[in-house]
Every structure is written in C-alpha cells, then in structure tokens.
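To whoever is on call:

I kicked off a structure prediction for a single chain this morning and the downstream step that reads the tokens threw a length-mismatch warning. I double-checked the sequence; it's 559 residues and nothing unusual in it as far as I can see. Pasting both halves so you can look.
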Amino acid sequence: MTVVDDTRAVYVPSRAGHVAGRLDLPPAGGPLRQPVLLCPPWGWAEVASYRARWDWARRLAAAGHPTLRIDLVGTGNSAGGPRDGGLVAAWIDSIAVSATWLCDLAGADDVAVIGLGLSGLLAAQAVRDGAPISSLVLWGTHTDGRRFIREQRAFALLSGVPPADPPDEIGGLHAGGFLLSDETMHDLVALHHRDVRGRSLRRVLVLDRDAHTRDEFPGAEVTPADDDGSWASMTDHPERSTLPGAVAATVERWLACGTPAARASGLRPADPREHRPVPGVRERAILLPGGGRGATGTLSAPATGPSTGPTLVLLNAGAVRQTGPNRLWTEAARRLAARGSTVVRVDADGIGDADAGGAAPWEADAFYAPAVEARARAILGALETAGLDPRFVVGGLCSGAWAAFHLAGDPRVTGAIMLNPGAFVYDRGAQTRRDLRHMRRALDPAVWGRAARGELDGGRVAAAARALVRAPRDTRRRPPPDRLEALLAPLADGRTTVTIGFSSGEPLEAEITRDGTRARLEATPGVRFQRLPGHDHTLRSTAAQAAALRVFDRASRGR
C-alpha cells in the first residue's frame, strides 16, 4: 500500500505513548524567533477551538516562530484514551517532551508555551518538573484543578446529558461527551498555581478568568492582560469559533520579546511518520489529493498482517475535525483496526487540518453543497489509487451522514452509516422551518427562565432570528421531487447496506415519518433503521457512544 504522508504531522514519543502534533514552520530565509508550543484546552473547548488554533499556529509561523500544536495523550489523535490510569502525569509529560522536542528541532535552549484552559495548569507543572519553558502564556486557565472540575460539573449539568448508563466501572464525570475519570479528577485537585518555579521560566503573560498574582511565579516577570471576553467566543462552537485578533496580537507582541532561536539545519523533523496509539494498531497522517486543497486524513490499520473487509471512511460531522464528535471517530477507528479493518478519518473543505475551503462562521448550506459530495468521491478515488481495498463503507454524523447517503450509490461503496442525519436531500427551507419552530417555542413563558439563566444555545437563538428574515424566501424552496428517487435507484439491488441511526427527538426523523419518506426508505433493500439511546444529536452520552460503536462494528463485518 502506498500513501502520501502528511509531513506537517509529527509524533513525539512520551512515556504514555506518542503525542500527536502538527508543525508549522517559518518561511525559508526569514527570521527565526523563539519556538512556540501551542497546548489545547480540554473536552468541548478543544473541539470548538481547533480551527482557531490552526489559524493561530499559521500566524505564529509566519512571524518567525516554529510552532507545534499538540493533542495531549489520551485526547485527539494522540495515543491512549480517557480511561487510562496516570493520565494527569501523562498530560504533563506530553507538554514536557514536546517542549524538549521542539527545542531540539529549532536549535533553541527553551520554548514559549501557550497554555489554553487546563493546559495552562499542566504547563506550570511541567515548568516545576524542569521542562525547557522560559515564556508561559495562560489563557482561560484556572488557578487550580478544583476550579476546573467545578466548571466541568456545571457544564455537564447545563448540557442536559444524563450520566453514564449503565454506570461506568471507573466512575467519573461526563462533561459535554468527554470523560474525566475519578482517578483523573483526584489528581487534578492537586494542581495549583502556587510558587511555580523553574530553572528556565522568566516571563508569564496572563489572560485569565481567575485572579493570578506575581507571588505565584516567583522570579518571573508577570504581565496581566485582558482577553475582552474572547475566550468564550473562541470555545463556544466549532462552526462559530474564530481566532480573536486582538488577543492574538497581544500575545504575538509579547512573544516577539522572547529569546531568538538558532537556526537548525533544514528545520525538518526526523521522527517516524507513524505510531502505535493502542496495542495492535498502527496509525499515520496522510494527504488526500483530489479531496480539495489540503485535504488530510488519519489512517488506522492493523499493526501486523493484512487488513480484512472494506475500508471504512469517516467524514467530518459539521465543522468537527477528524477525531469526530466526542472523539468517537478516533475510538471507532482504533477499535476496528485492532480487529483487522483499515479506517481513514477525513478532514476536508476547510475543516480541521484541511488547508482550504470554508471558514467560520459557517452557514448550513456550506456543509450540504454539491462540491462537498464531489470532494468526498474524489477522496475515495485517492484512497483507491493509494492501494487501499476499493470496497468502502462511508460513515458520518449530521452533514457527514448526508454525504455518506449521497455516496451510497457509488459502485465502490458497500455500506453507508448515517448517524442523526440532518437531511437526505438538502432543503434550506426545511432548516428554516425547524428554526421557526424553535422561535415559536421561545415564545413559551416556560422558556424565558432558561433564557434568563443563560441556558439556551446562543447560536440556535441567532439561527431562529435569521430564519424570520429568510422565511418568506426559504419556505418556498423545495428540492426536486425526484431527487430522493434518483438517490435510491442504485440501491435497488440490495448490494449496499445503509444504516440510519436516530436519537430520540431528531427533527428529520419526525419529518420523514410525516411525509412518507421513511416508508419509502424502509421499502428499499438494504436500508435499515437503528434507534440510538438518548436524545442528544452529537451522541454525548456514554450509552449513545457505545451504540454507535456497535453500528460501526456490524458495518465493518458487512452486517
């Protein structure tokens, strides 16, 4: 099998497995400033802010800073998972080894770390442990782990997602679809910003929600700055998140005063292009020519022996990167690869690490454009050309499920997995009608109290307001009546299996039941419906995630 490696992806060895990172380098021949390690927040904030961090790394590199973005061990594309023991120590080690790796790459004595959210606490501990960090930016970072846990508990309550059912054997807190085990929370409580010293720490820039004092960082110059509320806007939702220009400029001016790096020969990493994230699985980052400029993917395959069965391709869910909703795509890929399958998780159309395409804030139309379907087909062609099994199972959630359905008639596709699809045939008028229903519910006095407490999704409220403006035009727009029939015609021979999973309360399920589309789908050979536990669109409950993994298991076996 021949694939084209994504040379911007790196895997840094740590005690708990490889730390997955993305490297952005300054222009050749330009100035070389202090290297920057950009460390992510945790959980939903990490998902929502990913594209903003992608943009920031590009800006920093253009200004002369070799910049490495990482996923902490047990998160994103890095090795391990949230149920691993010793995770807090592994997170701290993730930052320490990445800082050392970046120093070696750039020929520098030390690095600057931008610690976002929880990563700021972890980076301070890495300083205590002797990591080569001279400049530390804290943004959105609490002064101790107890406050971070309290915030996540509040977030879990507001999300309305039930606790694990059945209860998880390791206990813990499930916040926004992400797990903090009891052991992890116990270890987080011990983290604090008190008397943070290190042999190299000289400067600290604080853009924070908590009060930090100079006494917390003895021997370092502490500079306070105002984030002007930008943290909340950057971490709200991946479809609305943008890099706050004023904050980025403040940080960049502060970083420009750091120690310059000595230029190392070539500034090219020499680490292996693949890693073993879990036992029995090898993984590598690849480029996907034809899938739009800069389309990328992660290929998971058995560590030894040939792959069996069709190649599973997992598409972006809205603007969520290739790790999938609640890291579900990563978990599914590694689980199936350990059982013999090859799985490719895709970033395309300006999402995640794909260079070009859309940009936040997104409109729904961008996820359902004909070009999205065309690029998804081109990605299948690129994978076939690369030597992967040319039989494909394509899966996705929301708009990714729509794309999977539109690919189901491709002769190379033997299966499609649709989790909570937003549409079968996209109709902007249908989306406007849904938003208007939200607006009508907002007139219910019982909802006013939720609005006063800040419990309503601001993006949904804004969408409902826009729907009022668009309604006269959009509600008259209907897709061609024969479009669904054209998509179902290639499935008539039953060769392709289409699994459609709905959580309770999904608007599309109610709509297709009312208008007879569900009966038409159920009469099509190979199409089957699956009930997903709970009522959450992005499958944040553990029961819904477990059910989705079972759907992938069956599809990989052709059942």
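Update from on-call: the warning came from a stale cache, not from the record. Cleared it. Sanity check on the structure: Confidence is low (pLDDT under 50) at residues 450-456.
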